[in-house]
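re: ur question from earlier - yeah i can do the single chain one, its not a big deal. heres the input i used so u can compare w yours
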Amino acid sequence: MPPVDTKAGAPDRNTRLKSIIGGSTGNLVEWFDWYVYAAFALYFAPHFFPAGDQTAQLLNSAAVFAVGFVMRPIGAWIMGLYADRKGRKAGLAMSVTLMCLGSLIIALTPDYQTIGVAAPTLLVIARLLQGLSVGGEYGASATYLSEMAGKSRRGFFSSFQYVTLISGQLLAIAVLIVLQKTLSPDNLNAWGWRIPFFIGAALAVVVFWLRRGLAETESFKNAKTGDAPKSGFWQLITKHPKETALVMFLTAGGTLAFYAYSIYMQKFLVNTSGFSREVASEINAVTLFVFMLLQPLAGGLSDKIGRKPLMITFGVLGVVFTYPIFSALETTRDPLTAGLLVMAALIIVTGYTSINAVVKAELFPAHIRALGVALPYALANTLFGGTAEFVALRFKSSGWEQGFYWYVTAMIGVSLLVYLFMRDTSKQSAIVED
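and the output i got, formated as tokens:
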């Protein structure tokens, strides 16, 4: 492949900012649609599954949440190839279309009492579509933001991938809190839970048009004008096996910790700690907001000191403090104490979330970067992130809830070993453009 001129054609500062803001906004809506399911599971679970106790219904809804992750590797494969061959912005536009369709299905599906087993079946189909979408979204957005950011600010700007991911989750919780305060409990349980799925579908339509106007990255353009081989699964596992394995194992502990500390935490505060739904939602909202603000700070720090120190800090603190934090949350009945404990857990995981996108993007050359970022990440998410709630509730149902705390601790330990021995990608990056 001929040498790449990293200066010629590089976007100016305004173009970079416009593209990063545009890509991030679309990412926010994508993740809002994805997280609305988790935020409203306490309300819609009785509508899609036969009558039973709360833990059983939550277990069923968590299982469907995990099913959505089964499609993420397939979506990562298909959409990663698409983004590598047709462009990053083309992949971003396609992913949001699939998300819109999934949200509409959930919003419009009648309940179990009306159509029987067809209700949970349609719910599964919707989550499969959304899983396909998110599987491609992560790789395309992480790659786009990492490539569009300048070399000296790559950690800072790519951290907005998780800023908008968290913003989507936070927006879902904000909608939940607003509906809790404006609708009666009966109305929210009966039909109000459908409102956020309609909102998500409408916003996805807006984002589709927004993403079609984004600028393409210079990395993709340079890869297309060179003689690099086409992106493909066989090319990935034969030419980049080490990098593929690295993405899977550095993701395993981080994604499990993130889902345990954030997604599952809302249900844990209700189902184990004994807080009301409203108080649990408020604790989750406040802590996630602070968590969101921490991402650019940590991402910018990685531009100065490197990526490895942050990941190692997460690994060490996660191994040491995960069990004590969850154990303390079991017994606390004070919302402030609970909020501080949850915040401590989220501060710890910031060492992973703030820079995981750029670390993965910096491991792969441009012609296979979207697939390389997306597929092994999606596989790790399917195995660990997507099953976090299900595994946690299974441990609780079996009478040994503490087993989940040890499970999270062990997986963070596995990722810590990877962080210790991998290269610092900020100093040896495969992204050659400035």
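Confidence is low (pLDDT under 50) at residues 1-8. not sure if urs matches, ping me
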